[in-house]
Design goal:
The protein is of the alpha+beta class. It has helices at 14-23, 32-42, 92-106, 124-129, 166-179, 191-200, 242-256, 271-279, and strands spanning 4-8, 48-56, 59-71, 76-83, 111-117, 133-143, 156-161, 203-210, 216-223, 230-233, 263-266, 282-294. Helix 5 (166-179) packs across helix 6.
Length: 312
């Protein structure tokens, strides 16, 4: 039998990967999973720092993807690892995970993150066997198509933002660092990382700026697919309608783009966010769990963090 070879993904692998993803019914999926793999085939290294294929002869039998975007404390990267059905339970997934670890460790990245959504529980034994442990649980919450309303807040300007302004990027980073100071999965942000999120990840933001001070007082992070990653509002604007305004404007954009079921995640203990989403007709639909594993690189401060107890 031809041995399994691990190597960086290149253009010559595209046809084989398409064949396997088509056979698995993945490329035609109209959800985040289908979007992820279609984008990877179109631009494999736009959002990812490494794409590693496991090949047996000319057949692609598995693939590991290491994303560029930083997550967590200490700073880590998420991966997506898939071994196609006929080649499972042969140690290929473990080899791909170890290759992803080596890539991250060589880059000085100490933590390897993985996320499981409802229906993916069969991957849990693999995660446990390869050194992952649970970091946090989230509720997956989706807009249900119901009514929502908002009113502009006096003294605040809102606009959609897709990057390109270093000064505004720095203000957004400073604001987000304060807003998510207790959030385990959000790393320290900079002007450059905000620009990377907006230009590299295909994300956009609804930004609220206070007219009198020119300070950022509210931000939603949004995407060109159905994921709605976050919303944050300055404390002095809590209960003043700003969350409804920027959240409603963001939802308007999703609907105009034909995305009828945007979704987000929230900590189960984050009652304020869940109550806000419920007011806007978002409701729980499933759950997700984040896991982390050390890569072998020394963390800058401490070991993989425990989850925070609240999120602003």
């Amino acid at each position: 039998m031809t041995s399994i070879v691990l190597e960086p993904y290149g253009k010559d692998h595209e046809a084989g990967l398409r064949q396997q993803l088509d056979a698995a019914g993945i490329l035609n999926r109209q959800d985040g999973v289908g979007y992820f793999w279609r984008q990877l085939i179109d631009e494999p290294y736009r959002r990812n720092s490494a794409v590693i294929v496991a090949r047996q002869g000319e057949m692609i039998v598995g693939i590991a993807v290491v994303m560029c975007r930083a997550y967590g404390r200490p700073e880590g990267r998420c991966s997506m690892i898939i071994v196609f059905e006929d080649w499972r339970r042969q140690g290929i997934g473990t080899r791909l995970k170890e290759a992803a670890d080596r890539h991250m460790a060589e880059a000085g990245i100490p933590a390897h993150y993985a996320m499981l959504y409802e229906g993916q529980e069969d991957a849990l034994p693999f995660l446990e066997a390869t050194g992952f442990r649970e970091v946090c649980k989230d509720i997956v919450i989706a807009w249900n198509g119901g009514d929502y309303s908002y009113t502009p807040v006096e003294g605040v300007h809102c606009r959609e933002y897709r990057g390109g302004d270093p000064v505004l990027n720095a203000k957004i980073a400073e604001f987000q660092n304060k807003a998510f100071v207790r959030e385990t999965m959000v790393p320290h942000l900079t002007a450059d990382s905000i620009e990377g999120i907006l230009s590299g990840d295909g994300h956009w933001m609804m930004v609220a700026v206070e007219a009198a001070t020119d300070e950022v007082v509210g931000v939603t992070e949004c995407t060109d697919n159905a994921l709605f990653p976050s919303i944050s509002v300055a404390r002095r604007y809590w209960a003043k309608g700003l969350a409804e305004w920027i959240g409603g404007l963001s939802l308007d954009r999703y609907i105009a783009a034909g995305i009828d079921k945007p979704w987000t995640i929230a900590r189960p203990e984050n009652r304020a966010s869940i109550a806000y989403l419920k007011r806007m007709n978002w409701h729980p639909v499933s759950h997700s769990i984040t896991y982390a594993s050390p890569t072998g690189a020394a963390p800058a401060d401490a070991s993989v963090s425990e989850p925070a107890t609240e999120r602003n």
